[in-house]
Amino acid sequence: MQILIISGSPRRQGNSDLLCDEFARGAREKGHSVEKINLQEKEIRSCLACYACFQTGACVQSDDMADVLAKICAAQVLVLASPTYFLTMSGQLKVMIDRLLPKWQDLGGKDVYIIVTGHDGKSGLLRVGDDLAAIWTSLGAHVRQIIYGDHVWKKGEVLGTPAMEEAYAAGQCVGHTP
Ligand SMILES: Cc1cc2nc3c(=O)[nH]c(=O)nc-3n(C[C@H](O)[C@H](O)[C@H](O)COP(=O)(O)O)c2cc1C
């Protein structure tokens, strides 16, 4: 399957990014095609709410989102990863989600995996997972799994935790989730 991983932390090789790579490792071992996008490396400006895309199907802004959106549309499986920032998802990920507007009616049917990290316990991260799951469910996607990397703060603290095994196993199970 065609898998697109969207890593929403500004920290390369941070905790959520490491979980993305572990998911990718599991999926590649099963023969899936995997691409990862680090949102921090992309220029994606905020939605202008001009609704021009409702007429044309495309955003009036010229930045990296056209390319990212084409990849999202082409993927059968999406992995969305975010650190918890003040109880919600990262700004990078939210800005990208708003820019789905030109194609919001074309995103149904995909399998979606969500990765959330934070220094809090799982109860403090649930809101992020729930919000992301609600967004993608409303778009008609199937949210297959939410992986929580809890109690991780500094870069790399997620290494050796059960979340790494969970991410790897989720990557291996792509296409087999009932
Ligand atoms: C601006 C900011 C706000 C944060 N707010 C929270 C929070 O509300 N809850 C939490 O558990 N962790 C919070 N954290 C900690 C990060 O979620 C945590 O360090 C996470 O592992 C970062 O993921 P990353 O390594 O993928 O960047 C915050 C970190 C930053 C920089």
TrEMBL record:
InterPro entries: Flavoprotein-like_sf, FMN_Rdtase-like_dom, ISF_SsuE-like. Pfam families: FMN_red. Transmembrane segments: none annotated. Keywords: Flavoprotein, FMN. The keyword Flavoprotein applies. SUPFAM superfamilies: Flavoproteins. It comes from the Bacteria. Residues 1-143 form the NADPH-dependent FMN reductase-like domain. This is Flavodoxin family protein. It comes from Megasphaera hominis.
